[in-house]
Amino acid sequence: MPRDNSTSKVSRWDGHGREHVVRVRRTGVQRTISCDTCGWRRGAQFLPWLKAEEHLAEAHQATVDPTATRQPSR
Fold first, then answer.
1. What is the 3-state secondary structure (H, E, C) of 10-53?
2. Cβ–Cβ < 8 Å for 36, 42
3. Long-range contacts of 21-30 (CB under 8 A, 24+ apart)
4. Are the C-beta atoms of residues 48 and 35 closer than 8 Å to each other?
5. Residue spans of the chain under pLDDT 50
6. Four-residue CA torsion sign, 71, 47, 17, 15
7. Global pTM?
């Protein structure tokens, strides 16, 4: 039986403009999150993207979302 394998990522920038990425891998119902920057890895059954964001903020002070829409300046 084929398994549903997919990978997504959460990326944030720190105050120095460096990008940090945490990947969320899904194999069936199991999810694993791992940081490309420091190698941190964790299983996450619930809310893996929130846990990825928390790791980026706490471990790397990376809180700027590169996908956030910008408001036009007036």
1. EEEECCCCCEEEEEEEEECCEEEEEECCCCCEEECCCCHHHHHH
2. no
3. 22/52, 22/53, 22/55, 22/56, 24/48, 24/49, 24/52, 27/3, 28/3, 28/4
4. no
5. 1-2
6. positive
7. 0.81
